[in-house]
């Protein structure tokens, strides 16, 4: 019933346009009553985005199942991938909806409010994980926002390409780009942690006498 | 006329609630006709956010006046400060609106679409500045989003504190937090550029023979 309402709605949206289609048109084509429509969808907008509520619930459950050992930034990137997976399950539908959303301002606004809910879900998780940090809530808000921006960047590139190609490779690249800048425990802007096994970094002033440089290098190399 | 419509609208919104106030109520209290209202505001939502159009235009002009020598990340942070300035010009009004927006879902959605327009304005500027970079559009989208998140984090903290205190100090701190992570020309996650005058960074592998370490250090110090 739910699926046939979605199918009927999209057929009409594409044939007549979104604004020109009424809920009565949709239920008539699906062969059900008005009350059946409202049992599944609070409004006409909701039939356009039928799976976000479930995806938000899945994301929340996924984050709640996180353990202390999980890197929080990696975890929110993986949580964001759940949204891509939902879109990638049905490329044709996702591409149709993308085109529709671009044309109808009301749907664009609806989508912004959905994106906002994903972002706040990620931010709430990060705020918990960063609770002990100075600037923890700021860090949480900024990273949640950056992850959502990177996710949407890759998602839209894939939708613009008509859902053809490997969405997950582009997604990995975009999310990596963000997580590299905000690696879990390092303060923002720090260099990646040195690989302890084989790299040593020495910082020295230009006027430092050479004997002190050598001493510091040796200490860094563990040869003291 | 415009100001008295805004004043009348807010008086009624606070007294009766937003949903319970009609445009007819507003024009009656302001002593003008309905057509005057629509000359200034396309809808009831717009009277709640009367200054965003001007602020968006100011932001666009500010970014267009940017020169190549300007650091793009610093420039978008300064552009975001224009929004804070608008709020800080009238703290009482801003705090009232903040409370109203939290209560009325339709206003929350309206605000999200305004925030989206600011974010796309910043992103469009950054896309231009990063056009020659690999991942330039990704970088632009992520930084625009992070700057907006940091701005809104500081702005909301100030609004929650009833508009008391120095909003700009908290804003500087939040925007610095983002720009440190995305310093203009370094790729994300890189260390801050060394201060050329007095600091040298040497990276070496643990197993490198000491003669090569010393040679590299000397080269780094410019003593070759």
UniProtKB/TrEMBL annotation, chains A, B:
Keyword GTP-binding set for record: no
Domain of life: Bacteria
Alphabetical list of InterPro entries matching this protein: DNA-bd_HTH_TetR-type_CS, Homeodomain-like_sf, HTH-type_TetR-like_transc_reg, HTH_TetR, MftR_C
This protein's record includes keyword ATP-binding: no
This protein's UniProt keywords: DNA-binding
Positions of the HTH tetR-type domain: 1-59
DNA-binding region range list: 22-41
PANTHER family tied to this protein: HTH-TYPE TRANSCRIPTIONAL REGULATOR PKSA (PTHR30055:SF226), HTH-TYPE TRANSCRIPTIONAL REGULATOR RUTR (PTHR30055)
UniProt protein name: TetR family transcriptional regulator
Organism: Kitasatospora paranensis
């Amino acid at each position: 019933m739910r699926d046939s309402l979605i199918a009927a709605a999209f057929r009409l949206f594409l044939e007549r346009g979104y604004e020109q289609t009424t809920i009565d048109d949709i239920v008539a084509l699906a062969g059900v009553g008005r009350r059946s429509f409202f049992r599944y969808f609070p409004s006409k907008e909701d039939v356009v985005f039928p799976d976000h509520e479930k995806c938000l619930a899945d994301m929340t459950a996924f984050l709640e199942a996180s353990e202390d050992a999980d890197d929080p930034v990696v975890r929110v990137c993986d949580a964001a991938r759940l949204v891509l997976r939902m879109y990638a399950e049905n490329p044709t539908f996702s591409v149709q909806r993308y085109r529709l959303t671009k044309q109808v301002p009301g749907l664009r606004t609806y989508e912004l409010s959905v994106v906002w809910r994903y972002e706040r879900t990620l931010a709430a998780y990060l705020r918990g994980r960063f609770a002990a940090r100075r600037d923890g809530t700021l860090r949480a808000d900024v990273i949640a926002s950056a992850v959502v921006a990177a996710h949407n960047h890759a998602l839209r590139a894939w939708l613009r390409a008509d859902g053809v190609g490997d969405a997950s490779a582009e997604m990995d690249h975009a999310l990596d780009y963000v997580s590299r800048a905000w690696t879990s425990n390092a303060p923002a802007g720090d260099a990646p942690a040195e690989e302890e096994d084989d790299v040593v970094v020495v910082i020295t002033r230009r006027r430092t006498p050479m004997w002190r440089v050598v001493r510091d290098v040796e200490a860094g190399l563990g040869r003291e």
